[in-house]
Amino acid sequence: MKLYDFGPAASAQRVRVFLAEKGLDLPTEQLNVREGAQYTPALTEMNPFHCVPFLELDDGTIIAESLSICRYLEELYPTPALFGRTSTERAVIDMWLRRFELDGLVPMLHAVRNSMPAFAGRVVPGTRNGLPQLPELVTRGREMLEIFLGRVEPHMTKNVFVAGSEFSVADITGFFALRSANTLKMDVETRYPAIAAWFAKISARPSFQL
Questions:
Q1: How far apart are CA 57 and CA 3, in angstroms?
Q2: Residue 194 contacts by C-beta under 8 Å, 6 or more apart in sequence?
């Protein structure tokens, strides 16, 4: 199999952290996304959504989307179990994974892409279009994350990791949601000390030294 990657992309970094936690090393090709390498005819045929990363299997099957790649690799390499070992663990991890993706990472993605000049004309991942950046989406993203963190803070005062006592893929997603908040200079440390302590602990793991 072969991983198509772009080093600076948070979505690609999620997969690389997962690989590091698993102790896996895949053949990788770096794509210069900034110069539109993903839009070449050959890569468009492989991955018409144009987002990185994506994984090409030996039989030609293409798996895109960071979480889908991680789930596939978990099936092949179940140890350590980052999606859970039992039905209960898997459900709890998936619950927190969805919460951090839908209520944390997605609002932050749109807030960042609508606030930074580098994303002008690229507010929708995998596209080049004329959609304007909207300051309202930055404000709304901040507001949504504040609501979400207010819900998560009490939970993190009683748990070592997002989904309980063990590190999981939910912590990987949570890390990137919170890192986006730092990009927008949101004051997480003062307002949400338990979340900030968790983030500092996760950041120190060797797999996160990107």
A1: 9
A2: 153, 154, 156, 157
Residue with tokens 């749109």: 110
DSSP state for residue 161 in the 8-state scheme = B
| Contact between 47 and 209 (Cβ < 8 Å) | no
Phi/psi at 40 (5° precision):
-60, 150
Q: Going from the first residue of the chain to its last (210 residues), give the mean pLDDT of each consecutive group of 10, the final group possibly shorter.
A: 94 97 97 91 94 96 97 98 98 98 95 93 91 96 96 98 97 95 90 97 94
Q: How far apart are CA 153 and CA 40, in angstroms?
A: 44
Which tokens hold the place of 4?
């198509």
- Find where tokens 């003062």 sit: 190
Local structure of residue 61 (DSSP, 8 states): -
Give dist(CA 14, CA 17) in Å, integer.
5
Which residue pairs from 197-206 have beta carbons closer than 8 angstroms and sit at least 24 positions apart in sequence? 197/156, 198/156, 198/160, 198/161, 198/162, 198/174, 199/174, 199/175, 202/171, 202/174, 202/175, 203/175, 205/21, 205/167, 206/20
Which pTM value belongs to this model? 0.94
- Residues 184, 111 contacting (CB under 8 angstroms): yes
- Closest-CA residue to 131 (of 120, 117, 118, 141): 120
